[in-house]
Structures are given as structure tokens and as C-alpha cells.
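Field reference: sequence -> structure
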Amino acid sequence: MATLASPAVSEATSAQQLPDQLPTDQLPDFSTDAYKDAYSRINAIVIEGEQEAHDNYIAIGTLIPDQAEELARLARMELKHMKGFTACANNLGVTADMPFAKEFFAPLHGNFQKALAEGKVTTCLLIQAILIEAFAISAYHIYIPVADPFARKITEGVVKDEYTHLNYGQEWLKANLETCREELEQANRDNLPLVRKMLEQVAGDASVLHMDQEDLMADFLTSYQEALLDVGLTSREIAKMAAAALVG
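Structure field:
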């Protein structure tokens, strides 16, 4: 398979417009028990997601040795994000519900580990650098306008980094598309429905934080489809794979 140099984020990607914060009277009450209860699970998902991302990038480096240094750099960024989101919970006096988060990620985690054991670079990158990164970016986009001031600042910095990770996956898959297309399509069929179910599972807690489920899904599908278009798939191919999320 083809290899690539460390990809740089394009000007268009790095200049993504972050959403504006809503007026104070439209923000949730961050001090209520209901908010803190929901936040304990949402925050745990974010923390666990960043830990998973760190571990996944290190693992992918074992499959692409010539990219191990770059992947280790991406992994270190994820640990920095994890520390930032842990600080967000501390700022609100919330303890993240980590057992819930580990269960939340278990299906994707299992699929990643299976692909890793089988040496399937394409599947591992699809899960981590496309699906999970697009999931994270969409969640952060919807969260930023309704976040408390401390968390907003942290999240704005994180989301800019996540585009670097998404870009890495895009560039590798683009460089190897002719040899990995079939595996890429199968990996989408296997894993895209899981992301839809994850979004549905978190809808109730997200609503308490004033994050709309339909907005989350729409933003995720936009990021996901744009990434695959950049990889080189056609709109028709992407539409067929996106349909898998609706029927899976």
C-alpha cells in the first residue's frame, strides 16, 4: 500500500468556523442536579473517547511503522484533550461516570480491536480517524454554543485539533483507495450503524445540555460525508453507505 508524509491540515479545514455561544438567557442552568447528572455521562463519554483515541492511534502505529511517530504525536494530542475535559468536570463539581462511558464505546472498541488483530489498517482508520473523529467534531459543534464558559474555551481548542486527526485519516485512505475500497465499504457497513445507535443512546442526556439529537446526527453525517468525498468516494457510494446507518 502507498504511504504518505505527515499530512498538513488544509487552510479550508483549519479555518472551520466555530459556532457562536447562545445568549445567556438561552443557556442551561449549569448548577442544577439534572444538568450535573446528565453532564456526568456526557463528559465521561468525551473523556473515554479521547483515551480510546490515544490508544487507537498508538495501535495503528504498529500497523504502519513508518507513520508511528506521526501517529504518536496525534495520540499525545488526545491525552491533552482528555485532561482538558477532566478539568471541565472538576470545574462544575461533577464526577464523570466512566463505567457508563466504557460500556458506551464497547461495540466500536471491540470492532477496532478485532480489526487490529487482523491487521486491517483501513478498518482501524475508518473507525478512529473518520467515524469517531466525525462523531466528536459534530458533538463539539453542537455543544460549544450551550457550554459553560470554561468548557467552551477548552472545547474550542479541542475541535480545531480534531480536524487534524480527521485529515490524517482522509489522506491515508485517499492515498490507498484503489487497494482498500472494498474493505472501506465493508467497514462502513459494520460500524456506521453503531455510531447512529450511540447518538440515539445519548440523546436524552444531550437534550438536558440543550444539544438537539437531530442537529447532532445532521452535523455528524455532514462531517462524515465530506471526509469520504475527500477520500475519493462518489456521492452515490457515500449515500449507499450512509443508508446503512438508517437500516442497521
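Note: Residues 54 and 75 are 4 Å apart (CA to CA).
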